[in-house]
TrEMBL record:
This is 4-hydroxyphenylacetate 3-monooxygenase, oxygenase component. The lineage of its organism: Bacteria, Bacillati, Bacillota, Bacilli, Bacillales. Keywords: FAD, Flavoprotein, Monooxygenase, Oxidoreductase. Residues 281-479 form the HpaB/PvcC/4-BUDH C-terminal domain. InterPro entries: Acyl-CoA_Oxase/DH_mid-dom_sf, AcylCo_DH-like_C, AcylCoA_DH/oxidase_NM_dom_sf, HpaB/PvcC/4-BUDH, HpaB/PvcC/4-BUDH_C, HpaB/PvcC/4-BUDH_N.
Length: 485
């Protein structure tokens, strides 16, 4: 089966009968009709339509090595620097549609699965069945253009409720081994797009390390359809609205975050990628170069989002007749410099990559990690500038419907800009409000701040990337003519 289009994506999501709860009620309508999900579903349908356009075929897809059908290029394991650039160009097209606001766009999860696939040999050495399962699953997702989400992070109580091998532990774990597969119970947070996908990849960090060769019930990786028996999704409050005039961002790009609960879910044996060996989790991430491959996709999203911010800030400044003010120019040129920095880091990651022993080309991790450290502050600064430039205009903005009421003449007279009609001016500031003052922008900012881990985790990752630190130290010792250690 080749790549899917938007209509097929919507049909597949609507066929799902997931156990999904929103605001205390079970969702029993097709998700493409539900106000919390339909805007995002329409956006992703447009993305899938894009990959089917004939003039983009060679940019968005490649020929499957097994079926000779056209499959999504985000599944391609790069074996050359050119392959990495091809993957980036594909992601740029999708990022141009969502402007960097979709953290779990399909190419993100496809890249994550691809990264694990490149480490299949690791699993095959541990147990051939596991490596075979992962290879087969990767090919299945590639050949059927499966939309994926993932569940990695567990609630805090999972670590605080005692060792995983104790009965009172609330950690996600295998509670029973059956001939058909593993029975899993536990909960995960932040399964972003859990309801609007077809399958969910589950790969948590083991809650406790048992060591001494013991079988760790919290050490596992698997993938299952998101509507299998025993899975429940509980949604956070949605920030989505239908009007693209009143809510231009959340009406299109609101990704639902969910808590996903596994209550004695039977995971078939052929969907298990490892179990019991706690060291395999870290090795799969490390030897699959997860952070490098996914970081490359993320950086393309960062760039698209920064470009959107710069465009918005320029339009806001012109609307406020402030585009030539020194304070504005000083502020926006700092963001412009950061954009160039992000682009340069991406080039460095692509050109300074290395080949693995299996022949895959991996982007350099250090530039990508540096971008991950810098972007949250850039994001927060951009939102601050939006609030500053917009001033009080950020707040007093009527609905689009008001322009079709008896008050239309008042609005057109008193809310017009220097050179723009009132309705256009209000549309601009409603966009600014969603980012600078609304719930959608607040969620985006928090999401970006902790997208790839907390500050300590990312700092440790950055420090671990620097293999030249000893050389830098030696320069100081030599300069001061000290012996050092």
């Amino acid at each position: 089966m080749p790549i899917k289009n938007g209509k097929q994506y919507i049909e597949r999501i609507n066929r799902k009968r997931i156990r999904l709860w929103y605001n205390g009620e079970r969702v029993n309508v097709p998700l493409s009709e539900h106000p919390a999900f339909r805007g995002l579903i329409r956006t992703q349908a447009a993305m899938y339509d894009k990959q089917c356009e004939e003039d983009l075929r060679d940019i968005m897809t490649y020929v499957s090595p097994t079926s000779e059908e056209r499959v999504g290029l985000s599944f391609l394991p790069p074996t050359t620097p050119d392959d990495l650039v091809r993957r980036r160009r594909m992601s740029e097209i999708w990022a141009g549609l969502h402007h960097g606001f979709l953290g779990r766009s399909p190419d993100y999860m496809n890249t994550a699965l691809m990264s694990f696939y490149t480490a299949c040999s690791l699993l095959e050495a541990a147990m051939p069945e596991y490596g075979r399962n992962l290879r087969t699953y990767y090919e299945y997702c590639r050949e059927h253009d499966i939309t994926l989400s993932h569940a990695f992070v567990q609630p805090m109580i999972s670590k605080m409720s005692g060792p995983v091998d104790h009965e009172e532990s609330l950690a996600a774990k295998v509670v029973e081994i059956q001939p058909e597969g593993l029975v899993v119970s536990g909960a995960f947070l932040m399964a972003t797009q859990g309801p609007t996908c077809e399958e969910i990849l589950v790969l948590p960090t083991p809650t406790f390390m048992l060591g001494d060769g013991q079988v760790n019930p919290s050490a596992f990786a698997f993938a299952v359809p998101n509507d299998v028996e025993g899975i429940t999704f509980i949604c956070r409050e949605s920030h989505a609205f239908d009007s693209s005039y009143d809510h231009p961002l959340s009406s299109r790009f609101e990704e639902m975050d969910t808590m996903v609960i596994f209550d004695r879910v039977l995971v078939p044996r052929d969907r298990v990628f490892f179990f019991g060996k706690e060291e395999l989790c870290d090795r799969l991430f490390r030897e699959g170069h997860f952070h490098a491959y996914v970081g490359h996709q993320i950086l393309t999203r960062y760039i698209a989002k920064t470009e959107f911010f710069l465009g918005l800030l320029q339009v806001l400044a012109e609307e406020q007749n402030a585009d030539s003010e020194p304070t504005f120019l000083h502020s926006i040129t700092k963001l412009m410099a950061m954009l160039e920095n992000l682009k340069a880091l991406r080039v460095a990651a692509e050109t300074d990559g290395t080949f693995t022993s299996s022949g895959y080309y991996v982007p350099a991790l250090a530039p990508l990690t540096a971008a991950g450290i810098q972007f949250p502050d850039l994001h927060e600064e951009a939102l601050r500038l939006i609030r500053t430039i917009s001033a009080s205009q950020l707040i007093m903005n009527p609905f689009g419907a008001d322009f079709f009421s008896e008050n239309e003449a008042y609005l057109n007279a008193y809310l017009q800009g220097i050179s723009s009609p009132a309705k256009d001016r209000i549309a601009l500031f409603r966009l600014a409000w969603e980012l600078g003052g609304g719930a959608f922008g607040g969620r985006q900012n928090q999401f970006e701040r902790f997208f790839f881990g907390n500050g300590k985790t990312i700092a440790n990752r950055m420090y671990g990337c620097c293999e030249s630190m000893e050389q830098y130290k030696s320069r100081i010792y030599q300069f001061l003519e000290l012996k050092g250690e």
